[in-house]
Every structure is written in C-alpha cells, then in structure tokens.
Amino acid sequence: MYIRAFLFFLCGCFAATSILAQRKTDDFLKNILEKNKDSLFQQVLSHPDEYRLQIIYTQINRDKNNKPTFTNYYFNVDSLFFFNPASTVKLPLAALSLEKLNEMKLAGVNKFTSMQFDSAYPKQVKELHDSTSESGYPSIAQFIRKAFLISDNDAYNRMYQFVGQQTINRNLHSKGYSSTRITREFMGYTEDQNRHTNPINFINMNGTVIYHQPMQYNTDSFDFSHIIKIGKGHYDNHDSLINEPIDFTKVNNLPLKDLQQILQSILFPLSVPAMQRFNLAKDDYAFLKQFLSQYPSETNYPKYDTSEYFDSYVKFFFRDSLHHSMPSNIRVFNKVGWAYGFMIDASYVADFKNKVEFMLSATIYANSDGILNDDKYDDETVSHPFLYSLGQTIYQYELKRTRKYKPNLRDFKINYEKRNSHDTRPAIKNADN
What DSSP element (H or E) covers 397? Predict the structure, then answer.
C-alpha cells in the first residue's frame, strides 16, 4: 500500500514537472524583448509566472505571389498555464454564429435578420428590442458589431444563446481546439442554467416569425479534472471576503495558441488546415474584418460616446496613456479581454505606409493585493503600459526587419463607415463590457 502511494506520488511529481516543462520560450523572441530596457517591461518579463505572462509573436513573410507563411515565436506559452480569457471568447462566438446561420440555409434568415429572445428557464432574460441598432431589433450582425467595437457583454450572451453550449464546444473541438472550453454566459448563472439557452424567433420586417429556435439544452459533459485556483482571497456574490483562492476550474478556457489560431483562421483562412476553418461566406469574412478593425468613432449603429470609447479603446498594443488616437497608417484587427486582473490581446497589425504586417498575442495578470473580484487590479499601472510597450517593441522590430518581398495589403484595405455629423441621438456612455 505504501509502495503504491509512493509510486503515485512520484507520478504526480513527474506530471507536475512535465507540465512545467511544456512552457515554451524561443530565444529569438526573448532576445527581441530583452532589448526593451523599460523598467516596468523588464520587471514583468523577468517574473513571467508571477504575472502569468504568455506571448506569441507571429512573423508573416510573403512570397513573390503575395502568399503568406506564418512562423510563431513563443515566450512562456503553455496551454495548461491558465488565464481567464474574459471577452476574447467573443471572437469564436462571432464566427460560430455566422457559421450556424450558413448551415441553417433558411430563406430570409441571415446575420442582418431581426431576432427576439424569449425566456423559458429560471433567470433567463428576454430581449425583444435593441435601441442601438438601426432596425430597432437585435441581430447577429449587431451583436458582432458591439462585441468587437467595445467588447459588449450582452452581445456575447446572445450569440452564446443562439449557437448553444453544446454546438459551441462540439464545433470548436472538431476544428482541433480541443483545449478550448466555453461553458458560461456572463450572467452569473449556475452550471445548469448555462446549459439551457433562450428560445429565439427570427422575424421579418412585419414582425412575422420566419424561424423559431426552441430552448436548447447541452447533454454533453465537460472534463474539469484540471483544478485551477488563483489568488489568496476573493469576494463572493454577497460581497463577502473569502480568504481562499478563487476557483476557475469550471469557467471558460481559451488557450493563447487557440486564440491566435482562431484569429488567423478568420483573417487568413487559406493559411490553416481546412478542418480549422469556419464555414463562412466571403461577405462574412469581410464583415468580421471590418468590425475587428473599425473604430467606434466611425460607427453610427451603435453610436458610442467617443470620449469614453476612443479609437484605441480596444487596441491595447497601441493604447498609449497619453494619446487615444491611432496612427493613420495602421489598422489593428483584434480581439481583447479583461477581467479579474487578466488582460489579453490577440492582434493582426497592418501598416499600409511602411508595408509591415505581423500578429501578436499576449496575456498578463496584474493583481498586487492577491484579492480577486474586488475591482482593484493593476490595469492602468502595469497591464496597459506593459501591453503597449510590448506592441511597440515588436512593431519597431518589424519596421526594421528585412523582407524579401513586401506584402501587398490590399485584402485589408476597407472602406469604413463615417459618423453622421447630423445625428442628434444621444451617444452611449455606459455599456456593460
């Protein structure tokens, strides 16, 4: 009995060592990062586990026919090294929503079709109208706009309800994202409530129901064997301090490698294996590209207050604390997330003036007091400055990097909207994001 217990102990030690050994760091990227001598940057870089830091720099090289190849360089990356993905899960949900619409093949039902959400289970919330949209009704297109422009939470919840928990996970796993797990809405639901999704009606302009989707229920099980606890204390739903780590074991999980690959598959679908691609139409890809890169100041529906939701609001690698504008020659196609002290950005950067392009994905955790759910994180003093410095470090390297063939970035030149200066509607200042 004691021998068996000792063997199990040894196996546990080997397993732990194996997990730690999976952290991947490439000297090439490490050398680039070490050239940035900023004290905060080096403080985070030299304590990657404390800040739960992971970085993927994706170098893109074109051939004479403008065909891109992608090379990933890693810093402290490990799919088992958990970070709270927060709003980055909105990226796969947008693609899965469009994919489901395409596979439904119903006349009159598309991303612009008006929708209404009913309730049929405890705590479910109806949504019959959307004052932010031009039609006055919700739609998948409007949810994607809101999810990408400022990272709106209700938009994510509604796409989750449309696709359904079971379909979300089955489809992502079938595409090879086996470590990704999306289990919950941003509604404070129980596990059981997250398995049930609202009934939905698609309606025409006269309010007639075109298609009714009944409440869905996920019968599949999840593997929660990997226990994840973070922090030294947390506040519970009753605002009581619990002097124990917060348990992230059953929350959403989206490893950085998967997030980077999902973004790449949306922006460069031919660069990934066919099984990893989403079943999207050409105009779906164009729509996603537009709103991954469009600014709130360029958008009429929703009409956001641009003093609150400025151009670099969700462009963390270019979000300077002193300036909220973006360089006119650059567009960033990205998805960010922030919650519980975690901050994440997965980006494709295109510089049309200097013919530069690259991808950069990173996550950082900054919570010096170790208490979670208290809304006291080091976002402004650590996370934002670090991610900005990281983005500029890679961008400056890319500006100097020699390329055999400069990229033709025509596929990323987009005719963006222009804000209607005669629109007197009040702008949205406080969104749930």
Answer: helix 384-400
Q: Are strands 68-75 and 54-62 parallel, antiparallel or unpaired?
A: antiparallel
Answer whether residue 316 shows pLDDT above 90: yes
User: Are 313 and 336 a contacting pair, CB within 8 Å?
Assistant: no
Task: List the chain domain ranges.
Answer: 24-83+301-420, 86-223+247-253
Q: Is 212 helix (H, G, I), strand (E, B) or coil?
A: strand
Cα separation of 285 and 269, whole Å? Answer: 9
Instruction: Find the length of the chain.
Output: 433
Burial 292-302 (b: 16+ CB within 10 A, else e): bbbbbbebebb
Element (DSSP H or E) covering residue 230: strand 229-230
Query: pTM value?
Result: 0.94
Residues β-bridged to residue 230? 246
- Rounded to whole angstroms, the Cα distance separating 152 from 384 reads 19
CB atoms within 10 A of CB 103: 11
CB 59 within 8 A of CB 358: yes
**CB-based contact 289:333 (threshold 8 Å):** yes
| 87 secondary structure, DSSP code | G
Q: What is the DSSP letter of 423?
A: -
Alpha carbon distance 397, 58 (integer Å): 12
CA-based nearest residue to 394, from 332, 345, 329, 349: 349
Number of alpha helices (DSSP H) and beta strands (DSSP E) in the chain: 11, 15
H helical segments located in 207-309: 256-267, 282-293
Q: Tell me the per-residue pLDDT of 279-309, one tens digit each, with 9 for 90 and over.
A: 999 999 999 999 999 999 999 999 999 999 9
Q: Which two tokens stand for residue 132?
A: 């932010």
